[in-house]
Structure formats: structure tokens, C-alpha cells
């Protein structure tokens, strides 16, 4: 069976979600590091390695939003870089896919500029899943994008809009 790992690379509570090809949801969590600065990035990295070492996987991660500014953005860019480096060094680069935040929102809700509660609500409406943490919910939707990219639509509402998002991501 193919497995998918969605990663929302937040500094405060990175979200992780695992699904299978025919199973839209296996598990999810968010990780709260007690560390700060670069030690927090290393701590989150170690958690990512735990997920990557578990089973054969396709990794879908959210890109940094275009035009982001500030110290949080610099630290988040460092985290994303560390994660990407790890994926590369673990020979998983060919199984790695980045998704733009507005593309993810459009896939989840039909609107590329929706707020986080709208994505949480859509996960509940469509799958009956309740996410308390928006980072965990983002990871869930990242997994759904990965599954749809591989034509695993089981459990997903396959709409023209979603098919269009996937075609655009494939470069069709």
C-alpha cells in the first residue's frame, strides 16, 4: 500500500497527517516543541525524521506563502529548508511535492483565500473529522492533494474544481 504524509511546517505546532492510497485518513497529530530558536527547528526536524522513517511514503508539504516577511518567516524558511534537506538526504526527493497555500485552500474549500476555520469545517462536512489545530487540518488536506495527484479519490468529493486544481499541479 502507498502511504502519504502531509506536513504543515509551522514553528509553533507543525501538523502531520498520514493516509493510504484507499484510506483518506489513518492518523494525524501536531507537535509542540518546548524549545526556542534553532533548537526548536532541530527538535521539529527530529519529529519529521520519525515520520519519514516509518514506512514507504509520498510527502506533500505546504510552501511558504509568497511575500511573507518578518522574523517568523525567516525561522519558518529555515525549518522548511532543513526538512527539504532531510528529505533529499533520505533519498525521498522523488516522492516529495510542494503545494502553494492558496492552491491548498482552493482544493479544500473551493476558495483560494478562505480562512483556517473554513478548511476545518470542510474536513468535518466531507469526512466527519474534527480538527482542533489548523496545522493538523492543513496536513490532512495536503494528504488529500497527494492522494488525488495519484488518482486516489476514495472518500473525496471529486469535483470539477478539484480536478482542475490537480491538473494545474500536474502541469497539464
From TrEMBL:
Instruction: Tell me the keywords, alphabetical order.
Output: Endonuclease, Hydrolase, Nuclease
Recorded hits in SUPFAM superfamilies, A to Z, give: Ribonuclease H-like (SSF53098)
Select a single GO molecular function from the record's annotations and give it.
endonuclease activity
Name the domain of life this protein comes from: Bacteria
Which InterPro entries would you find in this protein's record? RNaseH-like_sf, RNaseH_sf
The protein's name: Holliday junction resolvasome, endonuclease subunit
What organism is listed for this UniProt entry? Desulfitobacterium dehalogenans (strain ATCC 51507 / DSM 9161 / JW/IU-DC1)
Q: What is the lineage of its organism?
A: Bacteria, Bacillati, Bacillota, Clostridia, Eubacteriales
Amino acid at each position: 500500500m502507498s502511504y502519504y504524509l502531509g506536513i504543515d511546517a509551522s514553528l509553533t505546532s507543525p501538523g502531520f497527517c498520514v493516509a493510504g492510497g484507499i484510506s483518506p485518513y489513518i492518523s494525524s497529530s501536531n507537535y509542540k516543541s518546548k524549545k526556542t530558536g534553532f533548537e526548536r527547528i532541530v527538535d521539529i526536524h527530529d519529529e519529521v525524521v520519525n515520520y519519514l522513517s516509518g514506512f514507504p511514503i509520498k510527502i506533500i508539504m505546504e510552501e511558504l506563502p509568497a511575500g511573507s516577511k518578518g522574523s517568523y518567516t525567516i525561522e519558518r524558511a529555515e525549518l522548511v529548508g532543513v526538512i527539504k534537506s532531510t528529505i533529499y538526504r533520505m533519498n525521498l526527493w522523488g516522492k516529495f511535492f510542494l503545494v502553494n497555500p492558496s492552491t491548498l485552500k482552493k482544493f479544500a474549500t473551493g476558495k483560494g483565500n478562505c480562512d483556517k476555520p473554513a478548511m476545518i469545517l470542510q474536513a468535518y462536512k466531507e469526512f466527519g473529522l474534527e480538527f482542533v489545530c489548523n496545522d493538523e487540518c492543513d496536513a490532512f488536506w495536503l494528504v488529500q492533494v497527494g492522494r488525488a495527484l495519484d488518482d486516489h479519490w476514495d472518500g473525496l468529493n471529486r469535483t470539477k474544481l478539484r480536478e482542475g486544481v490537480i491538473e494545474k499541479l500536474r502541469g497539464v
